[in-house]
């Protein structure tokens, strides 16, 4: 079985060569991604005429009938379904192939991450999932490497127990419990000073790796001067993040495989169950006789409101802004009102006019960034600004499982941006003097957000960076290029 | 304790000699004072004849006091604050104490470990600026205008990396930085890196803020709640940036994280400062000083001020990009 | 002594009277003094009036086309059809409203305008909205919802489906055919924008005055005033008048009352027509020219100007700035469903200015590169609030977040003594767009106007650029 040394797509395919069914599944999945079959409605085409707006009965079907289908079911493939599919694929690859060490597994995952990114860069959910799995692998590895009382070895005590958090988050709730409760990957002075050198991410340190290898804890001290072995233990043979992995990552451990597979299963369960924990908070935030404003279509918010209406039996009224350019607001309104929730639809321009009477603003999130900011449907920044001006709390309801991104909004409003056709405006122009644009996302800075309602509870925007360090490792690439 | 007084004078002399030689050594011409201090501490450990941890810690404490005393003098840092020096030394000593508690068995081995890790730590501190620059220059986009204050080597390396390595085109507005003219000196450094730079008066910060897309400043110390202590004028800059909705970034190495919790400007540690002189620089010819040595005139040459955390958007550190609330987290974890 | 006795007797008498009154009251109102009971009685009274009027109206306008009755698009399920005047049950269902804790006070049902002004005098709504709207109102459901937020406003006007609007028989003499045409245009929203509507109304009045012949026994000023008022009412019933129209009408009325008795009719009429022309030329058109000149000084080379919707003064401003040789480009933001910005887009294309045309959702994205935000106003209120097209408040907010200056162009004839803080206390409701008519979710709320309280750097008027706080001062000066 050839060992995989580099996370390129070519070497991954070589590695999978003997598992043709896996290769087939992978290629089919990547092809579907590229063809846009899993396109989130955010990126799909917008209606080009008023009577093509979803929810409108005089709705003409296009040749492929795609739009019409979307109206009927609301969404072809949701992002969580997509992530689940990806997870299943990754699990089958990881479960079937015969890698022997965590280092190899990390290289496989990194290769998969690069493949996903090259096929579907605009949605971060797949990269986030891969990153999460990579962190899982690292944590399992660290867990297995229990401290041995070799002389001269420092014990690993990098994490203080998380007792009380500002957001009331139970410690370790994000990552699967028990086996993965500690993370050695937090960037901190403590870890920089005390733990193994691999946590300091500079090349200078890596060059010291040779010197320190005699001190590393997993094995008996080697005498200095032993020739560097071939294979993955030789730094020049590996690429990507594996370059910075200490040698014990490339050793075989018997229990590792099983623990990793268990961990994968827990991540999948997390994906499937995320909404339940969000819904349980519905009763805390929705009271009686409230007027709630929400923007465009969001399945999470829809289920949240339905839960409040049906289970908690709260009386409230929802105002939904139609949400150009996809007009998801109409679809959401139809769905909610068919279940008995009192709903009113308004134009985007009427949001500021009605805001003085609104009690609560609920916004969906496309991605949650490291500084607590949110990438949301375009037009929601305006919603949040208007809420702030009228002292109405803005709450973002979103599960964190694949939406939490370790990046900062360097580009401002351009982050994760995409553009769709502005044909719904009903203006066409061939003149050079006229530009028509229609962005899909907005960036909402953390100062406008009062609270996040997530599957780990209520979270302040300033606490998001903490959740990041629990789920992802700082070593793993932010963008899988 | 008697050994302490024996150690005092010659011991401290050696310490200070070390410090001065580190500061002026050609290979480390750009070395920061706290890093040099840490190297001095390492030397103290190497030379130490103590056989218990307590003794060693006492030696380190004495060395620290000595260095702090020297730091206030003009030769070393020209009346800058001693906060980074203090925080760096405290961090180092904290680290030594912690290693000792974790390795209570063998003193000799503990020392050996401490020395090894100490070298690493010192080495990291040298490369801290580079990793800060790497984190920070992602936030600079093409065509932006960056406002900065005085001369901070960290900010300079950040801007130089963005201009030289990443080949981004941007321009800089720098506040002159009275009284030591740090900004004017920084302008020369930036122009050599082919960055177009505009120098303005300190008082022009409100005027210049309109044109700026972001503000980047360095720090003398980062305090427990995520606020920063820096050259005088940073606080006003933070307030102006917030009023105009401009992002305000602080670039600081992790050894500058200090155990301070200032409540307001008056709550800052006192720093001895030099004389402040005034002149009308618009008049042609040689500068004529305006005489302020009269009764009832007090000249307050405050060199540092405290910028609270709510004016700061993000901090670039060698541990990564952190929000102000993450800083207190770090400090809690380290000193708890 | 006696006085004391008298006093005591007095006290005792008063006590007895009080007790008697209390007993009487208790007998009348076994539930005690509760407010809803009052309302009930009022409503009962109104219901009676309603029934009487309904009986009268039924006889009068059997031939009336149903198109005159605006439907109530908000509650298709409720059986209150405003248009049908003969529904005594409507009054009963209205009583339900009073018991709901959330709804506002119950204004009386004002009948359809089919009977002209005969209704107006009898109905005095307890809560008079500042523009005396005469249109029927719908019955909002008794639970909290978005419509109940606007139960104090008249329901949205639906454009009539048929072309002609046959005038009511009683007042056919006073209602000029051009009024009817104007009403059609308004209710079909083919004339929009405060300046255009005002000018159209004044042109219509010019025709009325031109054709007017005073009866022998009447004083011209009073009779003409009556005629004008009737016409104005009809116009208002087709669509609520804007503040610009109201101010223009006030000017016209003032002028008419000043007509001398002994003057010849033709002279008076000529004077009137001249006055109207001057009003249009000076206060409306010339003012917007001056505004254009003043505002164009704020446009610099290389500027990117953002505008919302379409406004006459802003159009002139762009043309002026272009004449001055300035190099700038414009971003036009448009709000659904009216999409008035298309007119601005067409105009700018003709001028040859580079335009970026975006929908309302793109505001936060484009605002970064904007140097100045400009839009027009429908009115300026005494407390400094700017009344403009719905959505302008959002534009102002986003501009504030990016620290961009906002200028509003407004002629002084649109200044009003009213005050308003938010867009809900007084507004005009819009009907549900056709495309969503049979959508399963039937609730729709749309308003026509927005009120911008703060965030505006200055108002460009023909007196120059003034801060929003100076409106009250200018109003005083103008008097």
Automatic annotation (TrEMBL), chain A:
Its main location: cytoplasm. Coiled coil: none annotated. Residues 63-76 have a biased composition (Basic and acidic residues). Keywords: Cytoplasm, Initiation factor, Protein biosynthesis. It holds the Pfam family IF-2B. GO terms for molecular function: guanyl-nucleotide exchange factor activity; translation initiation factor activity. Residues 41-77 are annotated as: Disordered. GO terms for cellular component: cytosol; eukaryotic translation initiation factor 2B complex. It is found in: Cytoplasm, Cytosol. Component of the translation initiation factor 2B (eIF2B) complex which is a heterodecamer of two sets of five different subunits: alpha, beta, gamma, delta and epsilon. Subunits alpha, beta and delta comprise a regulatory subcomplex and subunits epsilon and gamma comprise a catalytic subcomplex. Within the complex, the hexameric regulatory complex resides at the center, with the two heterodimeric catalytic subcomplexes bound on opposite sides. Belongs to the eIF-2B alpha/beta/delta subunits family. This is Translation initiation factor eIF2B subunit beta. It comes from Triparma strigata.
From TrEMBL, chain B:
InterPro entries: eIF2B_alpha/beta/delta, elF-2B_alpha_N, IF-2B-related, IF_2B-like_C, NagB/RpiA_transferase-like. It is found in: Cytoplasm, Cytosol. Keywords: Cytoplasm, Initiation factor, Protein biosynthesis. GO terms for cellular component: cytosol; eukaryotic translation initiation factor 2B complex. It holds the Pfam family IF-2B. Signal peptide: none annotated. GO terms for molecular function: guanyl-nucleotide exchange factor activity; translation initiation factor activity. The keyword Chaperone does not apply. Component of the translation initiation factor 2B (eIF2B) complex which is a heterodecamer of two sets of five different subunits: alpha, beta, gamma, delta and epsilon. Subunits alpha, beta and delta comprise a regulatory subcomplex and subunits epsilon and gamma comprise a catalytic subcomplex. Within the complex, the hexameric regulatory complex resides at the center, with the two heterodimeric catalytic subcomplexes bound on opposite sides. Belongs to the eIF-2B alpha/beta/delta subunits family. This is Translation initiation factor eIF2B subunit alpha.
Automatic annotation (TrEMBL), chain C:
SUPFAM superfamilies: NagB/RpiA/CoA transferase-like. Residues 1-175 are annotated as: Disordered. It comes from the Eukaryota. Keywords: Cytoplasm, Initiation factor, Protein biosynthesis. One of its GO terms (cellular component) is cytosol. Component of the translation initiation factor 2B (eIF2B) complex which is a heterodecamer of two sets of five different subunits: alpha, beta, gamma, delta and epsilon. Subunits alpha, beta and delta comprise a regulatory subcomplex and subunits epsilon and gamma comprise a catalytic subcomplex. Within the complex, the hexameric regulatory complex resides at the center, with the two heterodimeric catalytic subcomplexes bound on opposite sides. Belongs to the eIF-2B alpha/beta/delta subunits family. It is found in: Cytoplasm, Cytosol. Residues 80-103, 120-151 have a biased composition (Polar residues). Its main location: cytoplasm. GO terms for molecular function: translation initiation factor activity. Residues 35-64 have a biased composition (Basic and acidic residues). This is Translation initiation factor eIF2B subunit delta. Residues 66-79 have a biased composition (Low complexity). InterPro entries: IF-2B-related, IF_2B-like_C, NagB/RpiA_transferase-like. It comes from Triparma strigata.
């Amino acid at each position: 079985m050839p060992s995989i040394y580099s996370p390129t797509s070519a070497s991954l395919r070589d590695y999978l060569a003997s598992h043709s069914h896996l290769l087939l599944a992978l290629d089919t999945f990547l092809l579907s991604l590229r063809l846009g079959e899993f396109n989130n409605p955010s990126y799909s085409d917008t209606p080009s005429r008023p009577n093509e707006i979803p929810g409108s009965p005089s709705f003409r079907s296009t040749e492929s009938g795609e739009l019409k289908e979307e109206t009927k079911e609301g969404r072809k493939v949701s992002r969580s379904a997509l992530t689940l599919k990806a997870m299943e694929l990754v699990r089958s690859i990881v479960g079937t192939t015969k890698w022997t060490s965590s280092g190899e597994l990390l290289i496989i995952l990194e290769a998969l991450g690069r493949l996903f990114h090259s096929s579907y860069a605009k949605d971060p959910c797949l990269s986030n999932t891969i990153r999460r799995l990579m962190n899982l692998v690292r944590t399992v590895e660290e867990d297995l490497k229990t401290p041995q009382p070799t002389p001269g070895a420092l014990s690993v005590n990098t994490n203080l127990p998380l007792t009380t958090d500002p957001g009331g988050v139970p410690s370790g709730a994000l990552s699967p419990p028990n086996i993965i409760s500690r993370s050695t990957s937090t960037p901190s002075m403590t870890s920089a000073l005390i733990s193994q050198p691999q946590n300091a991410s500079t090349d200078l340190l890596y060059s010291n790796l040779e010197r320190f290898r005699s001190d590393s804890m997993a094995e008996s001290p080697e005498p200095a001067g032993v020739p560097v072995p071939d294979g993955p233990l030789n730094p020049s043979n590996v690429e990507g993040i594996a370059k910075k992995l200490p040698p014990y990552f490339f050793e075989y451990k018997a229990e590792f495989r099983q623990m990793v597979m268990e961990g994968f299963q827990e991540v999948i369960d997390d994906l499937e169950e995320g909404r339940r924990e969000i819904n349980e908070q519905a009763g805390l935030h929705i009271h009686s006789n409230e007027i709630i404003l929400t923007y465009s279509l969001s399945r999470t918010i829809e289920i949240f409101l339905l839960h409040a209406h049906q289970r908690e039996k709260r009386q409230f009224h929802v105002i939904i802004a139609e949400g150009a350019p996809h007009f998801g607001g109409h679809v959401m309104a139809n769905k909610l009102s068919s279940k008995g929730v009192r709903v009113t639809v308004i134009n985007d321009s009427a949001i500021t006019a009605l805001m003085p009477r609104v009690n609560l603003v609920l916004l969906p999130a496309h991605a949650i960034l490291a500084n607590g900011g949110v990438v949301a449907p375009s037009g929601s920044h305006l919603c949040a600004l208007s809420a702030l001006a009228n002292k109405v709390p803005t709450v973002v309801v979103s599960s964190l499982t694949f939406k939490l991104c370790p990046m900062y909004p360097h580009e401002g409003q351009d982050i994760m941006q995409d553009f769709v056709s502005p044909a719904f405006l009903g203006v066409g122009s061939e003149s050079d003097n006229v530009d028509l644009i229609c962005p899909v996302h907005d960036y909402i800075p953390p100062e406008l957000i009062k609270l996040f309602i997530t599957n780990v509870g209520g979270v302040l925007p300033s606490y998001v960076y903490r959740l990041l360090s629990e789920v992802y490792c700082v070593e793993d690439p932010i963008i899988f290029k | 304790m008697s050994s302490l007084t024996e150690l005092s004078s010659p011991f401290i002399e050696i310490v200070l000699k070390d410090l001065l030689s580190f500061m002026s050594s050609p290979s480390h011409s750009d070395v920061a004072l706290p890093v040099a201090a840490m190297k001095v501490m390492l030397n103290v450990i190497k030379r130490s004849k103590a056989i218990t941890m307590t003794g060693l810690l006492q030696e380190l404490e004495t060395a620290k006091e000595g260095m702090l005393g020297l730091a206030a003098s003009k030769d070393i840092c020209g009346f800058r604050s001693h906060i980074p020096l203090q925080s760096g030394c405290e961090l180092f000593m904290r680290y030594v104490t912690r290693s000792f508690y974790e390795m209570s068995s063998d003193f000799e081995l503990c020392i050996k470990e401490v020395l090894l890790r100490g070298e690493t730590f010192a080495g990291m501190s040298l490369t801290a600026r580079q990793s800060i620059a790497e984190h920070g220059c992602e936030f600079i986009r093409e065509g932006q205008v960056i406002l900065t204050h005085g001369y901070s080597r960290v900010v300079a390396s950040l801007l130089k990396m963005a201009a030289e390595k990443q080949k981004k085109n941007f321009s800089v507005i720098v506040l002159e930085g009275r009284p030591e003219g740090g900004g004017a000196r920084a302008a020369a450094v930036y122009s050599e890196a082919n960055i177009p730079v505009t120098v303005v008066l300190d008082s022009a910060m409100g005027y210049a803020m309109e044109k700026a897309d972001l503000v980047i400043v360095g720090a003398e110390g980062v305090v427990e709640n995520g606020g920063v202590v820096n050259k005088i004028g940073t606080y006003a800059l933070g307030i102006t940036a917030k009023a105009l909705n401009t992002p305000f970034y602080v670039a600081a190495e992790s050894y500058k994280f200090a155990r301070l919790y200032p409540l307001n400007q008056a709550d800052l540690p006192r720093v001895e400062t030099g004389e402040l002189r005034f002149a009308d620089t618009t008049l042609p010819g040689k500068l004529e000083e305006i005489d302020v040595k009269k009764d009832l005139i007090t000249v307050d040459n405050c060199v540092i001020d405290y910028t609270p955390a709510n004016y700061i958007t993000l901090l670039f550190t060698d541990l990564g990009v952190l929000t102000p609330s993450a800083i207190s987290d770090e400090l809690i974890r380290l000193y708890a | 002594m006696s006085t004391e006795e008298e006093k005591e007797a007095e006290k005792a008498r008063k006590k007895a009277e009080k007790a008697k009154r209390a007993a009487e009251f208790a007998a009348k109102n076994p539930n005690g003094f509760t407010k809803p009971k009052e309302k009930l009685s009022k409503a009962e009274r109104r219901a009676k009036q309603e029934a009487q009027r309904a009986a009268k109206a039924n006889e009068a306008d059997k031939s009336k086309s149903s198109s005159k009755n605006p439907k109530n698009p908000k509650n298709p399920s409720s059986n209150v059809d405003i248009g049908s005047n003969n529904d005594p049950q409507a009054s009963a269902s209205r009583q339900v409203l009073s018991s709901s804790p959330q709804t506002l006070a119950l204004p009386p049902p004002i009948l359809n305008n089919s009977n002209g002004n005969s209704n107006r005098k009898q109905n005095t709504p307890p809560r008079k909205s500042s523009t005396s709207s005469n249109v029927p109102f719908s019955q909002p459901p008794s639970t909290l919802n978005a419509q109940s937020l606007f139960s104090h406003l008249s329901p949205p006007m639906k454009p009539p489906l048929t072309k002609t609007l046959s005038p009511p028989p009683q007042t056919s003499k006073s209602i000029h055919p051009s009024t009817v045409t104007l009403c059609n245009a308004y209710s079909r929203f083919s004339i929009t924008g405060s300046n255009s509507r005002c000018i159209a109304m004044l042109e219509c009045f010019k025709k009325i005055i031109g054709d007017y012949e005073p009866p022998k026994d009447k004083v011209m000023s009073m009779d003409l005033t009556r005629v004008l008022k009737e016409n104005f009412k009809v116009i208002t019933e087709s669509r609520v008048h804007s503040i610009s129209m109201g101010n223009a009408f006030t000017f016209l009325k003032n002028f008419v009352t000043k007509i001398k008795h002994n003057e010849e009719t033709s002279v008076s009429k000529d004077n009137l027509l001249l006055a109207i022309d001057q009003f249009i030329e000076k206060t409306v058109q010339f003012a917007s020219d001056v505004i254009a000149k003043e505002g164009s000084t704020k446009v610099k080379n290389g500027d990117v100007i953002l505008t919302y919707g379409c406004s006459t003064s802003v159009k002139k401003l762009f043309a002026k700035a272009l004449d001055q040789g300035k190099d700038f480009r414009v971003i036009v933001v448009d709000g659904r469903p009216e999409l008035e910005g298309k007119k601005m887009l067409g105009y700018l294309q003709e001028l040859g200015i580079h335009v970026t045309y975006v929908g309302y959702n793109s505001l936060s994205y484009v605002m970064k590169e904007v140097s100045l935000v400009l839009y027009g106003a429908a009115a300026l209120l005494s407390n400094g609030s700017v009344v403009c097209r719905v959505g302008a408040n959002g534009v102002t907010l986003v501009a504030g977040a990016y620290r961009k200056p906002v200028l509003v162009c407004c002629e002084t004839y649109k200044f009003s003594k009213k005050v308003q803080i938010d867009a809900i206390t007084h507004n005009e409701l819009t009907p549900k767009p056709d495309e969503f008519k049979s959508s399963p979710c039937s609730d729709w709320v749309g308003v026509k106007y927005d009120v911008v309280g703060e965030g505006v750097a200055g108002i460009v008027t023909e007196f120059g650029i003034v801060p929003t706080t100076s409106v009250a001062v200018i109003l005083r000066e103008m008097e």
